[in-house]
Write a structure and sequence with these properties.
Layout: H1 2-22, E1 28-31, E2 37-40, H2 42-45, H3 73-77, E3 105-107, E4 115-117, H4 119-125, H5 147-151, E5 180-182, E6 189-192, H6 194-198, H7 222-226, E7 251-252
Antiparallel strand pairs: 1-2, 3-4, 5-6, 6-7
Length: 253
């Protein structure tokens, strides 16, 4: 009788065992106020030495499932929460991007077009997020700075000073440029190439003293150019070829 009972329990024990080892513990997503999301992977951590199939390595000694208390980075620096391992047994807390999800930031600039800040690119230059955060930028929304502010060392200008990195005066390194088409039925369209001009001049040679960064609806006549306005401020026969000659260099019939 006892023998038959024990045999009948075998399938249940096998089922329980397969369930226990086959269970998937989900990742935990922490949404921080100013530093994006942090994803904690149970699957990744339970493969580490001393933690394999050993939930007690963290629960409830380090993380109390009942209290669910949130800890600051300062707390972690005192070996609380994640800091119990990260900084001694695992990578340090200063490797922020290993946990905090970074993203590309797009600044919409009406006058000059969108500017893209790449965390991915900048992190190849320095893996220390503390280089910029929070001394230069908070991890959340930031105050908008003008180019004049940046030239004084604020915002991006703290590094882009032509010594640590290229100067903020090298506008086309961040601001997108494109060719500009002027439609002229009588003399043929004129295509202005930023690319060819940037090989000879800097952006500040033309903007904003000669041209605004907005597309101006007002057209300048050839007579006005010959008087030194618009393209004629450079194309006067000395700085560059004159607007009075080589017409087909610009006008394409």
């Amino acid at each position: 009788m006892n023998y038959r009972v024990s045999l009948s329990l075998v399938p249940l024990l096998l089922l329980f065992q397969s369930y226990a080892y086959g269970i998937t513990v989900p990742d935990v997503v922490y949404t921080t106020k100013n530093a994006g999301k942090v994803v904690f992977s149970h699957a990744k951590h339970t493969t580490k030495e001393g933690m394999s199939k050993n939930c007690r390595a963290c629960h409830d000694t380090i993380f109390d499932l009942k209290k669910k208390k949130h800890y600051s980075m300062a707390d972690m620096g005192k070996m609380k929460s994640c800091g119990a391992c990260h900084g001694s047994k695992a990578f340090g807390l200063d490797k922020c991007a290993r946990c905090h999800i970074t993203k590309e930031v797009l600044y919409k600039v009406k006058a000059t077009g969108p500017v893209k800040f790449s965390h991915k690119y900048h992190l190849t230059k320095t893996a220390d997020c503390g280089t910029c955060h929070p001394s230069l930028f908070t991890a959340g929304a930031n105050k908008r700075y003008s180019m004049a502010d940046m030239e004084k060392g604020k915002s991006c200008g703290a590094c882009h000073d032509s010594k640590q990195a290229f100067s903020v005066k090298e506008c086309a390194k961040c601001h997108p440029t494109r060719d500009v088409l002027f439609e002229e039925k009588s003399t043929g369209n004129v295509l202005f190439s930023h690319k060819s001009h940037l090989g000879l001049y800097t952006c500040v040679d033309c903007h904003i003293s000669k041209f605004s960064t907005f597309r101006n609806s007002k057209k300048v006549s050839m007579n006005e150019m010959e008087a030194g306005k618009s393209c004629g401020s450079c194309h006067e026969g000395k700085t560059a070829f004159s607007v009075k000659e080589k017409c087909d260099d610009c006008h394409k019939m």
